[in-house]
Amino acid sequence: MKLSTREDVNVPIEAVFASVTDFDAFERRALRRGAEISRTDPASGPGLGSAWEASFSFRGRERSLSAEVEAFETPEKLSIGSKSGGLLGTFNVNLVALSPKKTRMVIGLELTPKNLSARLLVQSLKLAKASLKKRYDKAVADYAKSIEAEHGGIHPGQRLG
Q1: C-beta of residue 45 within 8 angstroms of C-beta of residue 23
Q2: 141 vs 6, 101, 147, CA distance in Å?
Q3: What is residue 54's three-state secondary structure?
Q4: How many CA atoms does the CB half-sphere of 100 hold within 13 Å?
Q5: What is the pLDDT of residues 124-150, one digit of tens each?
Q6: How far apart are CA 112 and CA 23, in angstroms?
Q7: What is the DSSP letter of 159?
Q8: Which of 76, 88, 151, 152 is spaced 20 to 30 A from 17 at the CA atom?
């Protein structure tokens, strides 16, 4: 199953890449939502090979996930591979500079089941794909607005156009 969306951000590409690779901020966000997360690689900064182990509750069951940065090309590309039980995931962020102060983010998520229980999970997600796509698009749009607000662009809640 694949989900993908794109958003244009009124921020230079280097600043957007810095935001999408601010792994400490994402770790704090996951902790606030009740996940347990720990960094497993020896490096402290973002880069190729950065890795995490996490556990969280999803659909009433405790789940565990391992993730690792598989591609890290400053300032255009980030790819994170993950595994949770029989479910493999790939999260891709591609950035394109549209102008010196405007960047297009293309953010995709692909889930691949490797066993029967993962296939059942993905099948149930496919049945709700329309609502998942709406939530995914909104989350990416909200994230783009937060990047703009963080870098002096628009402020959260401010209307565009």
Answers
A1: no
A2: 8, 18, 10
A3: strand
A4: 0
A5: 999 999 999 999 999 999 999 999 999
A6: 24
A7: P
A8: 88
Distances in whole angstroms, Cα of residue 11 to Cα of each of 21, 72, 140, 150: 15, 20, 15, 10
E strands in the chain: 2-9, 36-39, 51-58, 61-73, 77-84, 87-99, 102-113
Three-state secondary-structure class, residue 36: strand
Q: Which residue has the tokens 């995914």?
A: 136
89 close to 109: Cβ distance less than 8 angstroms: yes
- Bond prior to 12 in cis (omega within 30° of 0): no
Best CA proximity match to 51, nearest among 25, 74, 29, 83: 83
Strand partners, 109: 3, 91
| Predicted local confidence at residue 59, as pLDDT | 77
**Token output for 60:** 């009433």
Length of the chain: 161
Summarised one tens digit per residue, pLDDT across range 99-130 is 999 999 999 999 999 999 999 989 999 999 99
DSSP percent split of the chain into helix, strand, coil, nearest 5: 30, 40, 25
Q: CA-to-CA distance for 26 and 24, rounded, in angstroms?
A: 5
- How many other CB atoms sit within 10 Å of the CB of residue 92? 17
